[in-house]
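Project standup — Tuesday

K.O.: blocked on the structure for the chain from last sprint. Re-posting the sequence here as requested.
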Amino acid sequence: MPKTPSFPPNRCAPKKIQEVAIALGLDPEIILPHGHFIAKIPFSELEKRQDQPDGRLILVSAMSPTPTGEGKTTTTIGLGDALCSLGHNAAICIREPSLGPYFGIKGGGTGSGKAQVVPAEDINLHFVGDMYSVSKANNLLAAMLDNHLQHGNELGIDPRRIVWRRVIDLNDRALREIIVGLGGVKHGVPRKDGFNITPASEVMAILCLAHDYADLGKRLSNIVVAFTQKGQPITASDLQAAGAMQVLLRDAIHPNLVQTLESTPAFVHAGPFANIAQGTNSAIATRTALKLADYVVTEAGFGTELGAEKFFDIKCRIAGLQPQGVVIVATVKAIEYHGGFDEEGGLGNLAKHIQNIQLFGLKPVVAINHFTGDRQSDIDRIIDFCASKGVEAVAATHWKDGGKGAHNLAQATLRAVEANKRKRLKFLYPLESSIKQKIETIARKLYGAQGVDYDSAAEAQAELLEQSGYGQLPVCIAKTPLSLSDDPKRHGRPRNFRIKVNELRISAGAGFVVVICGNIMTMPGLPKVPAAANIKVLDSGEAVGLS
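H.V.: unblocked you, prediction finished:
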């Protein structure tokens, strides 16, 4: 028998998932339970409510983080709990965790302390199998591509121009560059290949942006897997793979419902990284939550120049979302990491992120995620600095105190929502701009770069994508999250730098062009001592070392 999920001690027992569904106004008979505390919500529930008004959407972003993050997910959860404890009808939307960071350096993606979604262990590990569905669909397409090469290559695919890679949901640097098809004619056509981590798969991006089954099928069909020698794109539809991929994702498209430690409804669905993909949960989950709650708190990975930019310019544009509030998470630790309390150091970094949100036409709030040992004088300096920029900053203790520790943050956020109610989201660039113009706009306006340089291969790829009709798509820039630049060692608010573009990858099904900058890797590696080294199962069956 499966073991009963464990929950943090000294907390109220979680509600059965049917109770959480009822609190959202859902019929408990229509949900698809996965045990007692997890359920999938059929996306038909969104379709039923198309004529209902949406709640208010609040985005949680951050300043440039330290390598271990600044508690953005924890703040999202704490803010949702705070809104509920203040009497508001609220829900949260976050991404599904990946096993890569879980067994690597950052740990789980379910929050921490008294601001968590539960059952955390189940969510962080196998959850409902969405990650596996994405991996299987991705790798089925790869298998059908190589099978087509093996059986005569009727489409005239140039093996040197294959752009589709296999995926696995683990950090494994040895798989970045591989050779497949070795062993003779019976074992396939030898060629260079490689793996991405599952959250970087275009299939994951498609799952996050699809409206329904028909849209899912259309987007999967449009995936570009390779080019011919004449430069013509070859798609998943050409390989007759889209239907089978759609079947593998049939259940994964339904959003997942869980709860926080304080029983706030939580949608945890799909999980693209923000440094190498669009970094937000699924549009279906967000849009469903907006029909069921008055306030929906969601997050976008890393800083404003990564997750928030992609949330606005890609997700909101495609899904028709209109956010009314933005919270920027900052910490004393991050201020110090980025050079301290001056305009070129950590405070300068925070100021640029404030400015970035204002470029999108919205007024942000700064949440100072309080860590044990923070000096009040440092917190006061951050609050005073933000006030000088015309922005309210509030210290929050949700990690220690749960929702009540974020009451002041919730009230400040509601004030910002009210101030933004007549404002409309401004996209950073028009779709009619060329690919290079879009990259240049983001680099100059959000990063503070002086310009953009291109590797010769990237130059050729940009020209090919424009000629192939993909120039009107948004861009999704993959770069380090540790700096506003593309160099992770340039902390604070860097000046006098340029962005280096090494590669462009087309994600035609998702509907954007991926731009690889600096030394970013779409398959991360493990640290010298990975978190996995400290994880084991006791004789009692209890897992220890999971964070």
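K.O.: great, moving the ticket to review. Residues 355 and 446 are 8 Å apart (CA to CA). Residues 1-10 have pLDDT under 50 and may be disordered.
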